[in-house]
Structures are given as C-alpha cells and as structure tokens.
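4.2 Preliminary Data

To establish feasibility before requesting continued support, the project team ran the inverse folding procedure on a target of 1297 residues. The structure was first converted into the token representation described in Section 3, and no sequence information of any kind was made available to the design step. The complete token record follows.
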C-alpha cells in the first residue's frame, strides 16, 4: 500500500491500518494506490495485492459501501499487453458517491467506463460508479446485496466492467484514427528539393503536411491517397514515398526514425491507397466527435461511425458532418443518440443512411429534404409512425423499420413506389390485411416474422399478382389462406399454430411449414414449379396428392408425422419418425431413371422386405435405416449400391454386415452400433473410409489388413464386452485420430460407494462439421462421494468455452455449495461466477450450459436424493419418471421462448433473418458473449426435483438433439436400453437421421434411487479388503445369480459362498473402514459407521448408538481364501479368524401400522407365514434428515424369495456372486434371532460363547427388548416346509447371536 498523509477517518473511510498512514481526500474518499503486477493476463490480478482486513471490516458494516478499481490509461499495443503493468487505484466509496467527487480526489477531469473490454464512454459528473457496478451485477442475476458487494471487490470483474482515470486507447486503434508526428519531409520525386522538418498527419484518406510552428494557421499540403501509391525509398533508410493518383500526381518523401514506426505508417497508408472509393471506417472506437483532421479529407464518400458515443454539439460532433461535401453513405447505428440529429437532413448528397438502435421515438419532417436518399435503415428504435414527408423520397428503394413498435403497415408505403419490400419483422402487428398490400402494386417481398399475427383478413376476392415472397415465421396463426396470392413463389410459415394451410400453386416453388399442427395442406392447381417442400413436425397422415404430382419436386421433408407411405421419385427424402412398414417399389426400367440420392428412413417399422426396393435407386449416396426392424441385409442387394457414401444401420437386429460392402468404394461413414454384429465388417479396405461406429455390438475379434486406409479418423468400438485388442492391434490403430475402446475397470476407493445409484453414458458426434464444439461433464462421485454432477456445454461455433466450462464449473459448484445450502442460490452463483471466470475469452465467445447436481435431500424426508438442474441457452435435461418425460430446464432461445424474445426485442436488439441476436446467436441467455449485454444474460433457470423410486433415467442434450427429438420420443427410445452408452448413441443417431448435420451430444444417466439401492454397511456393502472396494456396475435388468438362495422365515439359508460381510449386512452391522491389516482389537475402537448418501449418519436422535461386538469364527485361511471358494473374500481381514461388527439393537414397538408407507414397486405377495406374523416392529429410519425418526414399517420385502429370479429382484449381486437382500426396513433384532445356523462355511460358531459375543443392552431398555423378543417368539407359528425344502438339513448350531 502506498504512503499517504495521516488524517482522521471520515464517514467513508475504514479504520486506518497502523502500518499505512491515512490521507484526506475531498469528499472523504479512501484511496489505496497499488502497483498490481499482472500474472500473464491483463485482467488477472495477484490476490495478495487486494485490500486488507481493515478495509473489509469497513465494507461489511454497510452493504451500500464498496470499492471501485480505477485503472490508469493503457496505450500499449496488443503484442505487449501480457507484460504491461499500470497503476491501479482502489477507491472505497458508497453507492451515493458521484463521479465528480472521485475525480476531485484523484485530480482527474473525467472518469471513463469500459464494458467488456470494448467501448469506452465518459461518465457524466452526476453518475455514481459504485451504483453502476451494483446495478450491473444485479442485472446479471445476483440477488443478495452482500454477495453483490463481495463480487464488486473481485478484480476479475474488470473483464466485464472497468473504470479508467484517463481514456484508454490501444495503439492500433490510434493508428487507424490518426497517425501524426514530426519528420523530415521532401517534396517531389527529384532530389532538387531539400529535406525539411514538417508535421505529418495521416487521417482519413489524406496525408497532411504542414509547418511545425504554424501547423493550424499556416499553409497545409493535402495529398489524397485513395488510388495512389505508398512505396519504400531504397536510397534512404526508413523512408516512404507517398503519391496521389491522377495525371498530376504529387509525391512526398517522409523519413522516419525507426523501422517499427516506418512499418506502422506503411501498413495504415496501404489500406487507404488500396480503396476504390473514399471510405473511412471509424466504428467501435468510442469516439465522441470526429477528429478535426478528418475534415481535410473532402473526398470522403462513405463514413462509418457505428458503435460510438457521438455527441451533437461538439467541435467535431454530428452537427458538423455537413462539412463533408461529397458524403454519400453514413452509418450512425448504435450510438444511443436519443434524438434525431436534424442537421443531417442538410447533407443533400446522402444516398444511404443507417440510424438503427439509437432510441428514436419519431422521425423529423425534415427527413423529406434528403431527395437523393435510396436506403434508410431505422431498425431497433421505438417508432410507431412515419412522417408523411417521407413520401417525397421517390428514389428510396430500401426502408428498414424492423423491431420498432408499429401496429400496422404505414400508409406512406403507398407513395414510395420504388420500394419492393416491406420489412417489418419484430413489430406489434396482430392482423394482416391483404387489402392494404393489394393497393401496393410495387411490393413483392413481405417480411412480417416475429410479430403477433393471429389472423389474415381479405377484403375482397381480388387476387394479388405482385407478392412473390412472404415470411410469416414465429407468429400465432391458426389458419392461413393465401389462395389470393396467385404469384406467390416462396412461403415461410414455420413455428405457428397452423391446422390448415391453403395456397395457390400457379407459381409456388418452395414451401416451408414445419413445426405446426397441420392435418391438411391444400394447394391448387398442382404446383408445377415446386422444387422443395418441408412439412416436418406436423400431424399429417398422408402426403398430399398434389405433392406426388409435382414433377419438378426434388426435396421432400415429412419427418415426424403419421405417414404410412411416401413417394420416392425425388432427389432428397426424409421420412424418419413415421409409421412406414413398406416402401413403394420402382417400376420396370425405372432403376436408371431414379434420381434419389439422400434417403432418411430412421425410426419406422421397416423390415427386411424393404431392402430389395432400395436396389431400384442405384444413385443413393446417403442411406439411413437406423432403428427399424432389420434382421438381415442381403449381400446381393448391398452390392448394387455402389454409390453409397454414408450408411447408418444402427439400432436394428443385424448379426453381420455383408462382405459386399467392400464394393462401396466411396463409403466414408458407417454407423452400425446397437446391433448384434459379431464379425467385424470388411471396411478397413475401403479407400475413403473415415468414420466407423460399431459400438454396443457382440464383436470378439478384428481382422486387420496389412495397411489401414490413411483416411480413417474415427473408430468407435466401445460397448463390445467380449472384444479384446492385442497390443499389436492397438499399435496398428495408433495413427487414428480418435479411437474409442472400453477401459479396463480400475480398483475404486471408498468414495465411490454412491455410484451404485447412478451410471452414465455419453455420445458426441461432430456431424458434417470439422470440429466438435460440444463438451460434457460427468462426475459420478462428487463432493467426497455424496452426490453426482453432470453437465453439457455447447459452444455452437467455438470449442474453447465448452472446454473451459468442462474443466472449471464443477470446482466452482463445490465452492458455492460450501457457502450456501439453498440450491437456488448456489446454482445461480455457480453460473454467474463461471461467467466471470471466463475472463477475456468470454468477451466475444459464448456457450450454452446445463448443470445437473444430485445430492442427498435434506428438505424432503420421504426422498433420498434431490436433483437440481440449472441451464442457460439451449442445452436441456429431461427426467424419465414412470415412463413419462419431465422437462427440467428452459430453452432460452428466440424461437422457443416468447418471453425472452420479447425482452430482447424491447431492448431493441436486431434479430436477423436466421433468428440470431445481432446475427451472432439464437440464445437469449448464455455464459460468455459479454459484449452482447444486456440482450444476452448469464442468469440460469433453476429447478429442484426430489428423486423417487419411479425416476428411471435422466437425459442431457444440446440444441441439435432437442431440435430433432421430442421429449417423449427421446424417453421412449432409451428407457428399455440396458447400456447407458448405447442409449446415448441411439439418441444421437436418431437426431442425425432426422436431418441433423450439426454437432450433437447426448448423455443418459440411469438412476437407481430407492432403499434397494443402498450401499451403506447396514444394507449390504461389502467390507473393504486390503486393496479397497471392488468396482460394481449397476445393470437395469440384472442377470440371474449363479448361486440361488432360499429363505426360511426372515433369515435366509446362505450358501457356502456367502461372505462374512453379507452377514454383517443381514444383522445391520458395520465393519472397519481400514484398508490395511487390522488387529483383533480394531472392532473395539469407537468410530462412526460408514453410510451411503441414502442413509447419512444422524447427528441427533431418540437413542444414542450403543456399539456391541459379535464375533463369528470361520475356517478362513490366512490368505483370505475359503476352502469352498477360490476367490478372495472382500471384507475379511487377512490375518485373523474373527470379524468384529457393530450392531444397533435399539428398536421400539411399531405404532400406527395402518399409516405405514405402501411399497408400490418390487414388492411381493406375502406368504401365509408373513400374514400370521404381521408387522410388529418399528425401527429408526435412517433417511436423509440428520435426526432419528421413529417410523412404522411394513414387513413386506423382508424375506428373500426362493427362486433365483426373485432373488435378483430383491437382492443386489455382489462381486463374489452372492445375493444380499435389500430390505426397505430391516428389523435388527428379528434378523439377529434368526441368524444362519450352519456347521461349516463362514458361520460355524464355537460351542462356547466368548465373553464378547453378546449384545450390550442399556438397562433402561432391557425389559422392553425382552418383552418384544418374547412376543415375537410366542406369536410366530412354525412354517410349513415346501416340497422343494423337504430335505434333511444338517445339524445346526447356535451362532454367537
């Protein structure tokens, strides 16, 4: 901290640190001067340089206090920014402190504000810097005033918002605006002239040479450079020769001192001389006025001042632009003028004027003086009417009034006869009156997208013969009759609510009507000129007859309808997601006439009978038959499709790919995952093969040729469980860019015990793009194994931001979870902090983001886990609950969110024809793209859902996935697929088959939530051995156990392969967590039991846990192997013969049994024995709430069934092949009394009880426990043995329990 003069602390000053004396500043502002060193980035400050604890204490006293980082002017070039450093002043102030007060304290004339590393504007004296910061953070999404104050003190905020004491400008910006200096100059090409010292200025399109002393009043030489030359002078070092164009060209030689300076001038002058017309581009330079030297460039015809802060009444302000006598084009968009500069109407030479996004509410009548004006753009303002004087502009051929507040088409259009377009997108029109358009015979194109159109009115039957193109996208039309537009050639009406559409077919060429509710499309007469028809995502049951008769139609997209048959006399056909069972056969002699090249038939009901039909289309290049019912693909048929380039056969029942695929020499993509293929197809000999996906099949080996094709880039072999690749094979595949194979399972640690609740699969496909801009985050064991985090990030066209978010967002979430327990708070802050941490990369780039956090539910006692989902952009998450989709996220896009689209339109952003904000992105909320603030915000949508046993899976996908798949279709497609990887691949394949050519990513998370998924020690977790836990994998439909187990009463008769750890599970015991060798006394040491997230250790309860020990002796050898088992037994200590377990014996009598929860799934019909016993014990339920709760429980599912199938249904297959019952509620005393009684195996008990082999019951509970056990024994009848159980059992001994 710099030294300052001592003085009393004012109301805005914190207590002074003893080592840093204080100074008095005007207004009581506390200023801390620091020379903060940069760490590689201009915006990354050393955190040690922040203010100290005294300053922080002062800030905490009032949330209206804060600090402002004041940067010094930085004029360094881009190449030296990494090593540059400048003074940084830390000003402590309040939200009421004006900029004038800070300027007085700093000795500055003005303060400047820079947003997102881009434009810099001067603050007005009355503006309050700290309030600007707080308002900015609040608008981003921060709600807590304390958190806003904390964020405002973070120096990383400088990437988004920064204050300067002097106006900063990088050197390259200064060069483009104006270059000046005093150099030696010689006029003329000959050496007769002498060198003289002159002031040289390069500004606009001219080189200005003047006297050094009388530079403003003396004689000035102006040399126009457009069309001229700039050359190096070889005879003189660091010299340039500037020459004008024309027969009387003049030349000036300028000698510079350094090579770098010479190169700067040459670089800038070369741009000027290369122009054909005199154009000056000064956009995005934070200018408030035009440089004075620019007015000497009288030949300027086009001046671009877009994205500045131009003022009206300044020496070089807008009121002085009339001085450009030859100016024809002027761009003043995005200058926030507020009022129309009337003096612009005096520039009679103007032919093009752009005044978009300036906040105009009206246009002056003087605009009628611009008689030469041909193009006028006033988009993104607040206009409701146009002046009548605008009709005087008879040369006006283009008028843009989109994204204003018009409620009807202005009448002035009737006078502007040179106009051929009505461009009024994003206004407030609710009714389209075709009669008004009939009176405008000069109008051919009508753009009314993104209005509020609900009806179309026709005043009379008179037809309109002039309109050829109409765009009605993104409105609210239910019926549309444009039969009167007999010259209509192209119609866009996507994303309305159309049920019926009627058009004239005389001139119709293209029709786009996807994403409606169409059941009928009427076109009369038959459109003989129709070439393209898009009717996807409607309710059509048949292709219209007129479409089948359109002879010139080449492109037909009818995907996602209800069709049963389609025509195939096309070049492109997409009929995916219909109900096709067969294909029309080609007539005799039509094979050579067929022009079909692209055929998409994914997700239909096609069988092997459709394959011969394909032979009739030998010119097929792309064929998608995924997710049908194909069992074979005859080799003779594939042999005739020699032109194939892309083949997709995934999701069928194929066992082989025909060997004749080797004849498809042009094939570059083969996708055949999720089949039953056991033999690797002969594709490695194809010369152009690039992408091969054979994942999730039954491959066992691969026959590799001597040389692989050099074009092979991607080979996916994951999900082939029986495939083993030798080292030689892997070496052969080493040149492949992307090789995907299954990894061998590694030993896991104790932190992975919760992974049994969920497992995931991920699929990402680049499509037809060269790079993959989608990244995913998957952490199955998050925050020390008590939760999971999954995420999806889509950068659209950039891959940098998705990877940054993939690497950092989980860490940010972990930090925020530790600061707040409110899911809405910590998820929102995670997104906002990640937005800030993107730094300079997030200024121009952006990414959609989706984050799903599964954690123990502390709010709902009936739920074990809670799922919190947050998202911005177009990535979405869908939960499958009971077979039905439950959307958990919100799509922040212009097309799917009317509220967000209206917000963006109200803030006067320009939405281009491809539905993108300022032509950049279709998202209205995303991380990054800070330069598009306030249109694009990072505030996420957040939803929290308690997970139940009915929740089957979670699907995460990017924009491309959900654009082509509905929620219901996605859920139905994967809910019966056992492998999550195969499920994710199936979703991506469906999207590609429906026409997706972009990056597509899908993640499927299978959920196993419920008591049967518990992994804590009381419910079946194996004891850790010296090598840790064995890895387990959850399978939706587990196989039958190799060792069936039978049950008698409550306790099962365990086979000889049952391990000691499973007995511990039966009696609700816990074992040691130590992975190393433990002595016999380890069980006597008090320690907390290990619990899963479903049953966290309670912090308080009715009873205190009373540990006791029960010792089971066994015939286990020292190496941990049993005489009847060849595999090491997990959980058995290697150097001992006893296992110490803790038993919780505190139980109470059940009450209110009629209110006990009913098991709806995985329950079995109780046997008579169970009916006789009833449900008579209640135990303390270990749920997510950290307290002991007495709940009545039912005895359903407290017995293992005798059949292997039911054992799998109610048991968990462990790594050693044994089955452990997964009771919802376990009566510990009952299990203890019915413990297994066998002579041999792990449970052979000693004849004499050891002193430690007993329960320890507190005295105050002894009588109650004895009474319960007595009632239990008296009320239990002897069960009748079944036929299969009437075998003589060996002699049994009592165990230690």
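Position-by-position output of the design step:
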């Amino acid at each position: 901290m710099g030294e300052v003069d001592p003085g009393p602390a004012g109301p805005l000053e914190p207590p002074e640190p003893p080592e840093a004396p204080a100074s008095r500043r005007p207004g009581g502002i506390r200023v801390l001067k620091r020379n903060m060193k940069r760490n590689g980035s201009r915006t990354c400050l050393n955190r040690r340089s922040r203010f100290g604890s005294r300053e922080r204490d002062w800030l905490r006293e009032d949330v209206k206090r804060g600090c402002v980082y004041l940067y010094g002017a930085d004029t360094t070039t881009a190449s030296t920014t990494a090593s540059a450093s400048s003074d940084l002043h830390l000003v402590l102030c309040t939200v009421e402190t004006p900029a004038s007060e800070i300027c007085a304290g700093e000795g500055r004339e003005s303060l400047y504000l820079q947003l997102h590393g881009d434009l810099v504007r001067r603050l007005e004296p009355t503006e309050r810097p700290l309030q600007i910061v707080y308002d900015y953070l609040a608008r981003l999404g921060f709600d807590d005033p304390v958190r806003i104050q904390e964020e405002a003190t973070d120096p990383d905020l400088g990437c988004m918002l920064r204050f300067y004491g002097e106006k900063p400008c990088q050197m390259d910006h200064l060069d483009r605006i104006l270059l000046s200096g005093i150099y030696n100059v010689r006029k003329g090409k000959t050496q007769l002239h002498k060198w003289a010292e002159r002031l040289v200025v390069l500004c606009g399109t001219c080189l200005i040479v003047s006297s050094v002393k009388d530079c403003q009043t003396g004689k000035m030489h102006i040399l126009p450079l457009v069309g001229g030359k700039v050359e190096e002078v070889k005879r003189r070092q660091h010299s340039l020769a500037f020459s004008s164009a024309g027969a009387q060209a003049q030349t000036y030689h300028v000698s510079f001192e350094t090579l770098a300076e010479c190169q700067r001038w040459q670089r800038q002058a070369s741009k000027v001389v290369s122009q054909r017309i005199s154009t000056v581009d000064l956009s995005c330079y934070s200018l408030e006025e035009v440089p004075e030297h620019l007015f000497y460039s009288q030949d300027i015809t086009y001046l671009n001042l877009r994205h500045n802060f131009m003022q009206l009444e300044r020496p070089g302000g807008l009121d002085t632009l009339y001085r450009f006598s030859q100016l024809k084009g002027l761009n003043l968009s995005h200058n926030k003028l507020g009022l129309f500069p009337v003096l612009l109407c005096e520039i009679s030479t103007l032919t093009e004027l752009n005044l978009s996004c300036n906040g105009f509410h009206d246009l002056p009548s003087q605009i009628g003086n611009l008689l030469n004006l041909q193009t006028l753009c006033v988009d993104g303002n607040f206009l409701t009417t146009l002046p009548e004087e605008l009709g005087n502009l008879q040369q006006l051929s283009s008028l843009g009034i989109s994204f204003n507040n018009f409620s009807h088409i202005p009448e002035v259009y009737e006078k502007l006869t040179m106009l051929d377009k009505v461009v009024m997108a994003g206004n407030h029109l609710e009714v389209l009156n075709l009669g008004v358009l009939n009176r405008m015979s000069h109008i051919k194109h009508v753009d009314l997208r993104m209005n509020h159109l609900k009806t179309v009115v026709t005043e009379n039957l008179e037809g309109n013969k002039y309109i050829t193109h109409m765009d009605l996208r993104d409105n609210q039309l239910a019926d549309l009759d444009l039969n009167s537009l007999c010259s209509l050639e192209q119609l866009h009406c996507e994303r309305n609510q159309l049920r019926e559409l009627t058009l004239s077919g005389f001139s119709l060429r293209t029709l786009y009507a996807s994403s409606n509710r169409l059941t009928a499309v009427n076109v009369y007469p038959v459109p003989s000129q129709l070439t393209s028809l898009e009717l996807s995502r409607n309710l059509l049951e048949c292709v219209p007859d007129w479409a089948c008769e359109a002879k010139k139609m080449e492109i037909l997209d009818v995907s996602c309808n209800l069709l049963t048959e389609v025509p195939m006399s096309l070049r492109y056909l997409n009929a995916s997601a219909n109900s096709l069972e067969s294909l029309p056969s080609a007539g005799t002699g039509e094979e050579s006439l067929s022009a079909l090249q692209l055929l998409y038939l994914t997700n239909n009901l096609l069988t092997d009978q459709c394959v011969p039909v394909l032979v009739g289309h030998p010119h097929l290049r792309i064929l998608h038959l995924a997710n049908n019912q194909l069992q074979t693909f005859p080799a003779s048929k594939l042999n005739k499709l020699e032109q194939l380039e892309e083949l997709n056969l995934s999701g069928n029942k194929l066992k082989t790919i025909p060997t004749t695929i080797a004849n498809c020499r042009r094939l570059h993509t083969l996708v055949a995952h999720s089949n039953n293929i056991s033999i690797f197809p002969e594709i490695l000999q194809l010369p152009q093969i690039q992408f091969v996906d054979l994942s999730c099949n039954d491959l066992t080996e691969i026959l590799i040729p001597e040389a692989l094709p050099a074009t092979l880039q991607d080979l996916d072999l994951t999900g082939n469980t029986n495939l083993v690749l030798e080292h030689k094979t892997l070496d052969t595949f080493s040149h492949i860019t992307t090789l995907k194979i299954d990894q061998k399972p590694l030993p896991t640690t104790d932190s992975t015990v919760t992974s049994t609740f969920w497992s995931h699969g991920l699929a990402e496909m680049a499509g037809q793009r060269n790079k993959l801009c989608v990244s995913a985050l998957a952490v199955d064991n998050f925050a020390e194994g008590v939760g999971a985090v999954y995420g999806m990030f889509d950068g659209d066209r950039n891959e940098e931001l998705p990877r940054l978010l993939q690497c950092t967002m989980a860490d940010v979430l972990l930090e925020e979870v530790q600061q707040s327990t409110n899911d809405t708070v910590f998820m929102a802050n995670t997104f906002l902090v990640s937005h800030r941490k993107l730094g300079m990369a997030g200024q121009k780039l952006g990414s959609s983001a989706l984050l799903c956090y599964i954690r123990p539910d502390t709010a709902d006692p009936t739920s074990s886990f809670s799922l919190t989902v947050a998202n911005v952009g177009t990535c979405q998450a869908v939960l499958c609950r009971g077979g039905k989709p439950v959307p958990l996220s919100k799509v922040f896009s212009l097309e799917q969110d009317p509220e967000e689209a209206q917000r963006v339109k109200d803030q006067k952003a320009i939405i281009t024809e491809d539905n993108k904000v300022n032509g950049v992105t279709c998202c209205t909320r995303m991380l990054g793209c800070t330069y598009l603030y306030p249109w694009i915000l990072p505030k996420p949508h957040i939803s929290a859902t308690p997970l139940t046993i009915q929740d089957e899976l979670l699907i995460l996908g990017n924009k491309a996935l959900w654009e082509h798949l509905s929620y219901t279709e996605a859920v139905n497609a994967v809910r019966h697929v056992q492998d999550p990887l195969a499920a994710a691949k199936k979703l991506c394949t469906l999207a590609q088959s429906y026409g997706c050519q972009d990056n597509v990513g899908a993640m499927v998370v299978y959920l196993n939530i419920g008591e049967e998924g518990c992994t804590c020690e009381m419910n079946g977790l194996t004891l850790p051995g010296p090598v840790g836990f064995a890895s387990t994998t959850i399978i939706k439909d587990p196989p039958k156990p190799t060792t069936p187990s039978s049950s008698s009463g409550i306790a099962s008769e365990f086979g000889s392969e049952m391990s000691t750890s499973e007995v511990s599970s039966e009696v609700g015991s816990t074992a040691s967590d130590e992975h190393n060798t433990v002595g016999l006394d380890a069980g006597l040491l008090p320690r907390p039991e290990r619990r899963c997230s479903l049953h966290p250790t309670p912090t308080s309860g009715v009873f205190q846990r009373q540990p006791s020990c029960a010792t089971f002796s066994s015939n286990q050898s020292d190496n941990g192997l049993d005489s009847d088992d060849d595999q090491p037994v997990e959980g058995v200590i290697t150097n001992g013969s006893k296992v110490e377990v803790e038993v919780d014996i505190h139980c109470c009598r059940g009450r209110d049994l009629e209110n006990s929860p009913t098991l709806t799934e995985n329950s079995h019909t109780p046997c008579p024995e169970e009916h006789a016993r009833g449900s008579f014990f209640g135990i303390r339920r270990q749920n997510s709430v950290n307290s002991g709760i007495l709940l009545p429980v039912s005895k359903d599912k407290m017995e293992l069934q005798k059949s292997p199938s039911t054992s799998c249904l109610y048991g968990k297959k462990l790594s050693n092949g044994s089955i452990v019952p997964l009771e919802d509620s376990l009566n510990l005393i009952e299990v203890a009394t019915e413990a297994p009684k066998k002579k041999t195996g792990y449970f052979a008990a000693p004849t004499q009880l050891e002193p430690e082999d007993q329960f320890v019951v507190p005295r105050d509970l002894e009588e109650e426990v004895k009474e319960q056990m007595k009632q239990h024994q008296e009320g239990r009848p002897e069960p009748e043995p079944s036929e299969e159980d009437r075998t003589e059992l060996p002699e049994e001994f009592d165990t230690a329990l």
